[in-house]
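Researcher: I've got a protein sequence and the SMILES for zinc ion. Could you write out the 3D structure of the bound complex as structure tokens? I'd like something to compare against our soaking experiments later this week.
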Amino acid sequence: MNGQIQVLGCSGGLGSETGSTCIRVGKSVLIDAGTGLSSLRLEAMREIKHVILTHAHMDHIASLPMFLSNMFEDVDHQVQVYALPHTIEKLQNHIFNDEIWPDFTRSMGPCGPVLKLHEIHPGDVLELEGLTFTLFPVDHTIPTVGVSVRGALGIGLSSAGAPEAGAQNPASETWSSCEERAGTDQHFVFTSDTTAGELLNRELNKLGAINVLMIECSFPNEKHELAVHTKHMTPNMVDATLENLKIAPKEVWITHLKPSSETKLRQQLRHHHIL
Ligand SMILES: [Zn+2]
Ligand SMILES: [Zn+2]
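Model: Sure. Here is the predicted complex with zinc ion in place.
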């Protein structure tokens, strides 16, 4: 199976069981490059060829610079990074500017520059490694896309509800349980960072039947104002979003819990029967 989903990081901060957002799809594609990427061994890192960045926030790009410097000396391929124009502009001006970190779009490795940046837009479809990645707009504080992945993903054949064995478990457990449930035509959807509302409801409903919906939930219900201000979600918002779906996903994986609120978030999500 070439498209298995491995959650390398799904925390909304530092100090939790995993690092921050990074999802490996198959052996060669990453969605986001947060600190969870550091859990990959060097040999596995060398197989990464494509990185889709959902937005420019640090918890989603933190490991990209050092990952690329790992690749610089001894890989035989360029790393293709797909990002919104806003994200590319931030990367070029503030990270890969030859001051904070080398400009890997120009620094030469054995096969030329190790990094190639590709501009993407909501609605774009990328065919990578035999899988179809569709980008959809979400509502966050900066331009951000969610990602739909269709193909042989090896996920979600079980309709066992929303297990705690979802996105909050260490990557190895997610990986092995996925291996056992391999399938050929499946649909994984990652919302990235977003708040609830019309846009998210409409975009998720447009995507149709979903095997696994990986949806963020950053703050507990008491911090509703903060969630609105920072354009994240609370358990009440996640519940309302799921209620609005015309077709219920087979599984819901919760991601991006803020470590300081994790216990409370788990209680509230269980109250909604989401965990
Ligand atoms: Zn964000
Ligand atoms: Zn984030």
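Model: The longest strand covers residues 5-11. Residues 85-95 form the longest helix (11 residues).
Researcher: Great, I'll pass this along to the crystallography team.
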